[in-house]
Every structure is written in structure tokens, then in C-alpha cells.
Design brief:
Layout lengths: L6 H36 L6 H31 L7 E4 H15 L4 E4 L7 E4 L3 H14 L7 E9 L2 E8 L27 H12 L3 E6 L5 E8 L3
Parallel strand pairs: 2-4
Antiparallel strand pairs: 1-3, 4-5, 5-7, 6-7
Helix pairs in contact: 1-2, 2-5, 3-4, 4-5
């Protein structure tokens, strides 16, 4: 049975709902999580050795939840867009910034850069940072090796720039490599809602690029992002 609304009215209602979700996620939930994290820091000097382990679990999961609110906010922004007008973005600056930010978030992980990032511009926009932030975080969070090791490289290939992010984790079976980019997919039973990879593919395809997964040697996965090069 029809709800009596026309397509335009239903679309407007959906956009309003997304904007409300974005507001709740950005203000209410995120603020509460940051408050939990702040109080957890204050407990450092008030717990015994056994309590320290539990406190670290609280801190790590709070940080992951805060990061998830960022991803949801960014995904909502993408869904609310009417379109995108790619502009020249310096890929070396984007990659350098995101590697340093994620490295500071996960000091236990080892990040290496193979060679120098190319001094080229790609067609994207400011949200391209979210692409590489999510892929780098994913390489650590879904890694069962100690220490997690991530290698980042980039090269110019014809009319595109190809970025490769390799890890030493469990890898991704071939029959799951498309599924992990779907909405809400969790991948290999790892923590997190999986919407980060859905956001990655959504943005990359908006830019006219592609993203996929390959095997790493001797183990692990390589996420390969190709973005059109700006002239």
C-alpha cells in the first residue's frame, strides 16, 4: 500500500533522516564516548596490575567507537551529496599526513613507506583523506600478527596513480574480496562494523577510480587504490 507520498517527498524525508542521524552521531554519541575516554585516562593511577588490563580494553574500544562515529559521519556526508566535482589533490601530502596520523594512533604497529610518494595530483576532493585513513586503520585493526606491519607505496601508472597498502595479517579469501566492501560487512570476524570499506569504495568510485584486494607475500592482504591523475 502506498504511503501517499510522492518520490520527491520521500527523498526529502530520507535526507532529513540522514541529517538527523549525522547530528546525533556527531554531537551526542561522540561526546559521550569522548567523556568515557577522558575518565578512563584519569583512572590510570587508581588501578592495580589486573585492573590495568581491563582499563586498556576500555580505552581501545572507546577509541575504536569514536573512530566509527567519524566514519559514519563521513558516510552520511557522502550519501547526502548530489554529486562530486573532483579537483586536483596532491596525493603525496594526503598519504604522508594519513600515515603519520594513523601511526600516532597505533604506536604498536610498524608503518613503512616504500620509496617516495609521487609528486602528482589526483582527481578527488578533501574526503580522499577518509579513503586512506580507513584503509590504514583497517590494516591494523584486522591484523592478528604481532607487531602489525603495514607497508605503503604509490606509483604513477599511465593516467592514474596507484596506491598499495600491504599488511602482514591473515589475508582475505578470494571469495570474500567483493563482499567486504558491502554495507555492514565485518570481513574476517574482526571488530568494527565494516562501513569503513563501504565508504572507501563509495568515494573512490565517485572519483572515477577503483579499489580492490590482492594477496601479499608471504602473507596478508594488499589493498590497491587507483585514482585518476590530474593533468
Amino acid at each position: 500500500m502506498s504511503d501517499g507520498r510522492g518520490p520527491e517527498e520521500r527523498l526529502k524525508r530520507q535526507r532529513d533522516d540522514l541529517q538527523l542521524l549525522n547530528q546525533v552521531m556527531r554531537h551526542d554519541i561522540r561526546n559521550d564516548l569522548q567523556l568515557v575516554g577522558a575518565y578512563a585516562e584519569l583512572l590510570d593511577d587508581h588501578v592495580d596490575d589486573e585492573g590495568e588490563d581491563y582499563l586498556e580494553v576500555i580505552k581501545e574500544n572507546t577509541e575504536s567507537a569514536v573512530a566509527l562515529t567519524t566514519t559514519v559521519r563521513e558516510l552520511t556526508q557522502v550519501l547526502l551529496r548530489d554529486g562530486v566535482e573532483p579537483q586536483p589533490i596532491a596525493i603525496d601530502q594526503v598519504l604522508s599526513q594519513q600515515v603519520e596520523e594513523v601511526r600516532s594512533t597505533y604506536p604498536e604497529a610498524v608503518f613503512t613507506v616504500e620509496g617516495a610518494f609521487p609528486d602528482r595530483r589526483v582527481l578527488a576532493d578533501e574526503m580522499v583523506n577518509s579513503v586512506f585513513r580507513n584503509l590504514l586503520r583497517n590494516a591494523v585493526q584486522h591484523n592478528d600478527t604481532t607487531p602489525p606491519t603495514i607497508e605503503v607505496s604509490a606509483a604513477v601508472d599511465a593516467d592514474a596513480v596507484e596506491v598499495r597498502i600491504a599488511d602482514n595479517g591473515p589475508g582475505i579469501p578470494a571469495d570474500q574480496r567483493d563482499e567486504i566492501f558491502g554495507k555492514g560487512e565485518k570481513g574476517l570476524d574482526s571488530p568494527g562494523a565494516g562501513i569503513g570499506l563501504y565508504l572507501v569504495r563509495s568515494l573512490v568510485e565517485l572519483y572515477g577510480g577503483s579499489v580492490g584486494v590482492e594477496d601479499a607475500e608471504p602473507s596478508g592482504a594488499v589493498f590497491v587504490v587507483r585514482l585518476p591523475a590530474a593533468e
